[in-house]
Amino acid sequence: MRRAASLGDGWYGIWQSPDQVRTAVTAINEFGRKAAFEVSVRVVTRIGPPTPDCDAETSLQGDADAILHKIQRYSDAGVDRIVIEPVSSDLDDSLRQIARFADEITPHITRTSA
User: Which of 113, 96, 97, 92 lies closest to 61 in space, CA to CA?
Assistant: First the structure.
């Protein structure tokens, strides 16, 4: 965390819960970070029924409302950018998941900074 804060221009968390991100961001802030520092997180994503192999705390799963609520939790924890990793059984399902995210989730997300 110290290296990210002092030398980097961002931090990229993989499969972290909003609470884990909040802890990381707090540590980075304590070390002092650059003004243009960006916090990103990569999360497993599935619109629809939960996937049994995925941790509900570190993924975006469920209906649009549940996913939007979790995205807000990530934002409140200090995340600037979310990278989705669709969970799917094949290419067609993966493409459907990406299209559903674009249609059902993205229009409701408001970017607050450039």
Answer: 97
